[in-house]
Amino acid sequence: MAPAATGTTNLESSEFFSLFGGCQPWLPPPWSTSDDRVRGGSSRSSLSAFPNNCALFEGHLDIETLGGAGFASQFQSPVALSHGEGDSTSDRVWDLSTYEGVEIDVGAGDGKVYTLILKDEDSQEVRDDGREKAGVNWEADFRVGKSSDGGTREEVEAKQIWVPWSALKATYRGKEKEDAGDFKPAEVRRIGLMMRSMEISGWNYDLSLRGSILQKPRK
Known about the structure:
mainly beta; 15 strands
């Protein structure tokens, strides 16, 4: 059964559960884009899926236009299978409380730093200009592969990145937020990938993904 629901999504309590990839599709629905173009930048991102159920997160990062604050990201939310009375986007969450973390199965990397993001706050509030209000992100950075001097992508062996919930750091507008409280795995509303590495400027990036797997506590 796919992790889709109205209201709270209680995932199967097996030792492992494939959230994306494997037996679960990356698409549909399409992932939503959140790039710095909403602030006048020119970064871009996309997430596409292939017949073998792998995915590619790719794009272009511009950190010059906004003075080093460029970012490009893709997000996914729980999918509503039906719309019952009182159901709204803000009511839909993934309940990941029976798991201790997520493993990202990477097929190929380019040596750049990527960020896994989980949001446990209602992100439906918008500003007067129609943009989503900033909220707390729970983040973990990871790097796969080696980058040459020109930023050329290098194929690497598949690698599993283990991210326990305890490794997530709370941030607000890109800065660490010490008073954010505790991460709430029972109320995950969005999961995403972001590129904002300060090590590169004006380079393309791409990351091949095989899957995202939830895991029970490791023994």
